[in-house]
UniProtKB/TrEMBL annotation:
This is Homoserine O-acetyltransferase. It holds the Pfam family HTS. It comes from the Bacteria. HAMAP family: MetA_acyltransf. Pathway: Amino-acid biosynthesis; L-methionine biosynthesis via de novo pathway; O-acetyl-L-homoserine from L-homoserine: step 1/1.
């Protein structure tokens, strides 16, 4: 998929080195097609890493996509320069009159806080409300999934006895669902969280698509595919959990090794990448079946009807 972004974004050179096609603005302007518009609400602290991970996964179909990155104006980011945010990111004020085919809300390392205690909660809540009439399909990831369910339905998150951290087995509950088209019966996905959402709390018009014996809910969707909630991190690259392990070891003195991640649970060895094909297929299925084949040609029509509840 030709992903159209600012050609100066550092992630572009990394993706091109891996033979992932990223289209610059000049070439995109010469193509007479309706480009899909995707908004990424990037709440992760290492924003450049997350940019690269998501762009790699959004680049796996023949569709052309224009990607905008959004940051929280009410939060001071510590791991990225203000120049990077000013150059490559937009604020809600910049895009609130725009319409998007799809939106991704990432995770964030704030799950041990009450939702209302997160400094950008009101702003994020406003964005989620806005998406009802300005976005066709939204994919929520990890804390972003918990935040979406709480903001929209008041569904709480529940603390786990210990952090769920590693690569976990997931079972496809509905292999005929379009989001799991091409999947095997089982797959693995990274998880990194200290809280969970319970199946018993979900609204009646939701469907559980995958579940893990140890990880619990994996992927749930509203049946009209306007809302998709992934409680794992399929977007993580090979070294993300290793970074978290090394960080916690240095900052907290914790040496809890992520489950089923390093060969023989030995953190001196290179982590095994076991979820790449599932991640690529899932993001392609979301773009194809939940966005491209269902979205309105004229996105302004979203404002006229409550498509969110259709």
């Amino acid at each position: 998929m030709p992903v159209k972004v600012n050609s100066q974004l550092p992630a572009v050179k990394l993706l091109e080195a891996d033979n992932i096609f990223v289209m610059d603005e000049t070439r995109a302007a010469q193509q007479d097609i309706r480009t899909l518009k995707i908004l990424v609400v990037n709440l992760m602290p290492r924003k450049m890493v997350t940019e690269t991970q998501l762009l790699a996964l959004l680049s796996n179909t023949p569709l052309q996509i224009n990607v905008d990155f959004l940051h929280m104006r009410t939060h001071q980011s510590k791991n990225i320069t203000q120049n990077h945010l000013d150059t490559f990111y937009k604020s809600f004020d910049d895009i609130k009159t725009e319409y998007y085919d799809g939106m991704i809300v990432t995770g964030a390392p704030v799950e041990n806080l009450a939702f209302e205690a997160v400094d950008y909660w009101d702003e994020l809540h406003q964005i989620l409300d806005w998406s009802r009439t300005h976005v066709y399909s939204t994919l929520h990831i990890c804390w972003g999934a918990q935040a979406g369910l709480y903001a929209r339905y008041g569904i709480p998150k529940h603390p786990l006895a210990q952090k769920l951290w590693g690569v976990y087995h997931q079972t496809v509950e509905n292999p005929k669902h379009v989001l799991f088209r091409g999947f095997d019966d089982d797959f693995v996905a990274p998880h990194s969280r200290s809280t969970e959402t319970l199946a018993s709390d979900l609204p009646h018009d939701f469907e559980i698509l995958s579940y893990g014996e140890r990880s619990g809910l994996s992927l749930v969707v509203k049946k009209n595919l306007r809302e998709i909630y992934s409680f794992g991190h399929l977007e993580y690259d090979r070294m993300t959990l290793d970074f978290e392990y090394q960080r916690d070891k240095a900052e907290l003195g914790e040496e809890v090794v992520p489950d089923a991640y390093y060969p023989n649970d030995d953190p001196t060895q290179k982590p095994r990448m076991t979820w790449s094909s599932a991640a690529s297929l899932f993001f392609s299925n979301w773009l194809n079946y939940a966005v491209y084949q269902e979205t309105l040609y004229d996105l302004h029509e979203l404002a006229k009807y409550d498509y969110f509840n259709l």
